[in-house]
Each structure stands twice: as structure tokens, then as C-alpha cells.
Amino acid sequence: MKITNLAPKVSSYDFMRYLCASLAKNKNVIIDPNSIVDKVFNFKKTSKSEFSYLFDDIEFRASIDSVVSYDINEGINNLQTFGIIGKLNPTYEKIVIYLTDQDAESILTACDETTRNAILELANTF
Q1: How would DSSP label each residue in 41-85?
Q2: Distance from the CA of 100 to the CA of which of 2, 16, 34, 61 falls in 20 to 30 A?
Q3: 57-80, pLDDT tens digit by residue?
Q4: Of 102, 99, 104, 100, nearest in space to 83 by CA
Q5: What is the pTM of this model?
Q6: What angle do CA 76, 81, 85 make, to 5 degrees?
Q7: Which helix (H) or strand (E) holds 95?
Q8: What is the DSSP letter of 100?
Q9: Which ranges of the chain have pLDDT less than 70?
Q10: Which residues contact 81 (CB under 8 A, 6 or more apart)?
Q11: Which residues sit opposite 36 in a β-bridge?
């Protein structure tokens, strides 16, 4: 019997938190918010099946010319609320990650090595 009410191994919020920590470790702290969903979606399509659990809590809606994810956008909003990221005014065209190397490392130590390697691989595409 397969149980379908299990919580995902990595929530969408944790996914975004790990991604921001990985980007900070790579010294990539100013990000175009429009590119995040596209890069994550492309990584999902091309990644190994062993990484599929990373996307259990993230839904994508793809149309002919764009990809949208309300889960990723909600994760970004939550990270902004907690002060991990900020958006540059006045048009919010860039996201700034406010994590030191030590903060980023402490976030990444909370996940297992497989998750950490996958997220670091994704961060390298930015």
C-alpha cells in the first residue's frame, strides 16, 4: 500500500533556502528573479532521476513561451520576509541575497549530501 500523504523530503521553502545559500557560497548574490523559475525548471527536466524528490513540493506551469511556479515565488516572498533576500527598488528587477559564507554553510549543513550536491549543481547554472 502506497501512502500518499507524506510530507515532501524537501519543501519548496527549503529548496529556495538551500538554493540561496548555494548561490551565496558561489558569490552570486544578485539574481534576476525572472531567470530563477526557468533555470530550476530546466534543471528539473535535465537532472538525474535521483534528484526528482527535490521537486515534489514545486509545481510548474509551462506555456508556449514561459514557465511559472507559484511555489518558487512564494518561497522567494518568504525568504524576503525572513531577511535572507531583498529586492532592489524601485522596480524589483534584481534579488539580493543577504547571507554570509558562515550563514550559507549553516543552512547547507541542514540538508543531506545528495541534496547539497544537487543544489550546488543547480547554483552553478546561474
Answers
A1: HHHHHHS-GGGGGGGTT---EE-SS-EE-HHHHHHHHHHHHTTSE
A2: 34
A3: 999 998 888 899 999 999 998 998
A4: 99
A5: 0.87
A6: 55
A7: strand 95-97
A8: -
A9: 1-6, 89-92
A10: none
A11: none
